[in-house]
Amino acid sequence: MDYQRILEDIYREIQPFAREGKPADYIPALARVDADRFGICLDTIDGGQYLLGDASERFSIQSITKVFSLAAALGLEGEALWSRVGREPSGTAFNSLIQLEVEHGIPRNPFINAGAIVVADVLMSHYERCDEAYLDFVRAISGNPTIGYNREVASSERATAYLNAAIANLLKYHGNLHGDIERVLNFYILQCSVEMSCCDLSRAFKPFADHRSPFRYGSTSLTSSQVKRINAIMQTCGFYDEAGEFSYLVGLPGKSGVGGGIAAVCPLKYSVAVWSPRLNGKGNSVMGMKALELLTTRTEESIF
Amino acid sequence: MDYQRILEDIYREIQPFAREGKPADYIPALARVDADRFGICLDTIDGGQYLLGDASERFSIQSITKVFSLAAALGLEGEALWSRVGREPSGTAFNSLIQLEVEHGIPRNPFINAGAIVVADVLMSHYERCDEAYLDFVRAISGNPTIGYNREVASSERATAYLNAAIANLLKYHGNLHGDIERVLNFYILQCSVEMSCCDLSRAFKPFADHRSPFRYGSTSLTSSQVKRINAIMQTCGFYDEAGEFSYLVGLPGKSGVGGGIAAVCPLKYSVAVWSPRLNGKGNSVMGMKALELLTTRTEESIF
Amino acid sequence: MDYQRILEDIYREIQPFAREGKPADYIPALARVDADRFGICLDTIDGGQYLLGDASERFSIQSITKVFSLAAALGLEGEALWSRVGREPSGTAFNSLIQLEVEHGIPRNPFINAGAIVVADVLMSHYERCDEAYLDFVRAISGNPTIGYNREVASSERATAYLNAAIANLLKYHGNLHGDIERVLNFYILQCSVEMSCCDLSRAFKPFADHRSPFRYGSTSLTSSQVKRINAIMQTCGFYDEAGEFSYLVGLPGKSGVGGGIAAVCPLKYSVAVWSPRLNGKGNSVMGMKALELLTTRTEESIF
Amino acid sequence: MDYQRILEDIYREIQPFAREGKPADYIPALARVDADRFGICLDTIDGGQYLLGDASERFSIQSITKVFSLAAALGLEGEALWSRVGREPSGTAFNSLIQLEVEHGIPRNPFINAGAIVVADVLMSHYERCDEAYLDFVRAISGNPTIGYNREVASSERATAYLNAAIANLLKYHGNLHGDIERVLNFYILQCSVEMSCCDLSRAFKPFADHRSPFRYGSTSLTSSQVKRINAIMQTCGFYDEAGEFSYLVGLPGKSGVGGGIAAVCPLKYSVAVWSPRLNGKGNSVMGMKALELLTTRTEESIF
Q1: Which of 3.40.50.10330, 3.40.710.10, 3.30.110.70, 3.30.70.240 is the CATH number of A3-59+197-299?
Q2: Residue C23 contacts residue C260 (beta carbons within 8 Å)
Q3: What is the pLDDT of residue C92?
Q4: Residue D258 among the catalytic residues
Q5: Fold of C63-194
């Protein structure tokens, strides 16, 4: 398959959407990003790499980090993790407190904020020095030891994270947050501030596509079955209230972030990451969604 | 792959669960079924067929019929269908009126009752004689011209279908039901009363697995892309409030019914149907779920 | 107290609001009413009557009928009525299905549609010929034997009563509707079609103000305590989602209808009825609310 | 009216309920209270005082404090207060986050926790030294300069106030909390820790009953109309999810607290306070509710 040419075709074809949507602006550090950047990188499991545009530029991965957190927590805690967080799609906006209250403090899945805060709490119970340990894992899985947090983004987010603080307090009220609320929140928000390029992300998602190879990065290891099951959760829960739409149009497990990034995998074929900061009304990258829809249409490779 | 032997191994392995759960008993006709029947049938896309137990016995397919209805409606109405029904997972019990009211009469997806009632309304606007036309399609796709409705089941369901009648009235209130409420409800309930065996179902789902072959049955035809997209909806919405669980444990697009049947596909590999009337608390067949989980574990074939 | 002069002062003072809001138009028969009518009638318990404007013109009392229905049902069924309907304010729009589903078919109070449909069902279980029996009671309590139903309004409402039909079906599903759905709905809607003037209504509410006199009309009798308790329910539940607002601004138990009428009582002092078809966004008469607010301000007579 | 004798009769009559319910035990300081205390005190507006049992013993007034806070805030902020908090009954449990999220951060009324936290925020924007200023007002209105906070109760509550912290963060998120979250929460919780006896409370509520006398305590003054309107809010919102029940059975404006206290007023007649720590499932004093129901039955004095 001539992926390079397909990426170039896609790039041309999505130009009509180049001005649709606008970047996240709830914190200054994100609003400063040039809205018109676009990058894409695809890694095949047999070692090919195809890229285009701003594929090497780092951006704030935001919620994409939740995939790494889930992988780390599942490796450390095992299936016991599921007593504290579900794996059902949420069916409401990503930050809704309603479901959490109705379901007595068990978040629907690890990819809504409530679930990711519980996952952060689980990680802190295992890690001695959580900030370093988490970064070590992300660096290992992406093969890039220069990846780091953006502490300006993190502290800017923390200053106005009232909704996440409400969620954390509600979790604590229901007995589903064991650590100190402030520390867990800080760690959760720090995770979201990781900066990576499309190439970093594509490489870091390759182990999810290539589940027949051993998954072992530092102290974190997963079985092939666990890796496939993380893909299953990405498929049903990776796109907030638009998981069904993405599944319908693209047909790949993936995860998006409000920084404009999307990473996805075609099991046993390739991983891919795309970045374009303009978001649609549901918080997903407009051009990113479009590019991935065209990718599976052109390649005729999707999980369905 | 020695599917026959795998099916036999699975059958032994699920015996400990043989008495778990109980059959649907909300109507007498369903409650009369022998709770301890079990059948499974698997069709590979290259023509192999493997079966075991009561695979040839007909049962009430109930909600599995929603897949055929969606296929028929998508063929007749095209993408315009999505202005009347969503394709997002519902995140609440399959018959909840709450989401419907909050979202002003647009059902979340075609596999909850509200969505299927809208689909029935769409079909009636296209079919001249809807009962015959729908049955013709089901017979054609399964290759079995003897398949029929069970009108006793249908009339028994109709007599107590207060919740579905509430849903239909609420749809009408919101302008999303064009036909006569009574007629649409009757047609919807009749669809659910279709009786098929595991072998019939597996055969009828094979076109969804084999999306590279033309999908044309009577007047209904779908593109390859449409077929794959129906698979995507089965994946995210096929198991009521347990779609994530099924996706996580089994990893195949599928659809269950309260008659105890489940049909699923492994794209480009096989279709499979299993039947066991005892249901778990979420309305899905206990042994059916277990059998399919073991199937993808043993074969190492899932979409992820 | 010079009530006549107070009414005249009020009438002048509310003129600036004369064009605010618009009449209910969901059925043609209501939309035809002249939007600019205004009438008010006040009956003191010692026999005085004061009126102004279109106080003798009949209009569709709509939901005000729920007070008569509750009185009749409480008289016939006694406190057992409260096992089938609550007496808490609803806190959501008057026709919401959500609360009904969450609370398993027990309507919050007898003045939301769901509660009134249950009350209609209760009445039908006691009355031999319900249409006549109910009208007899309304005629008796208002002392006007010429009062009647408007069957054109009723049949017009019935034709599009999808939401009420949804509610009735949901009640039936939860086992809280014993009669035939169609018959109960028809009877409920017929009750709402009663036509009365402000003078009729004021007279019919006088027994609620004058709870020290015996309450006995035809076969319906209530204790003084029961009468006062109906007032309590009017106070907390009589104005849909605006019960608190009415209580705050007016401070009298009362009941409004989408025909633009409001009836209220000042216990041991007077009953009052006002009519003006233009409604605010919550379905209550703009000038009616304003007039009653001024009435209690001027007279310094409220229950608080 | 021989109130003393009526109180004694009531006391005898409620003995069968003496062991029903149990005291609040969510913090140790409340759980330590003797569950079997009972006191009642009634002040007529013409100066009579009638008391019985433990009427002079102080207890934690908890949510009853919300009436004083509302009075103070309404005095300082005027009608502008209603842009930040509603006055409709809530229709759900007193601490529900759901309504707050659905209604975008405007609490339903000042007597649910969310509303009282907004009221605390309002008070802090007016008071220079809020702890002292609030206590001064409570001491002034009750005529008892020895009334104080119980800081052990307050700090014990603060340590586990996760739900209130969730509410405060959600209010901040919606822009309806202007002060520092921690400080507002601490002030709100301190207000709830005020300790008063039935006699203190009855005296402090007398100005609400006697709304024809000037309401001026320290820097806080209210018009007669404002006082009556606070009564209206007590009537519709004073008993959490049981406001309708209390209104129906008792028929007086009032406010309860989880310490087991209830204070109520019969406008232009008397104020009354009762205390008994055992609570029903809705968090209201079992014997307190019963005693007040009998009081209005015996005296035949209620607002209806």
Answers
A1: 3.40.710.10
A2: yes
A3: 65
A4: yes
A5: Beta-lactamase (3.40.710)
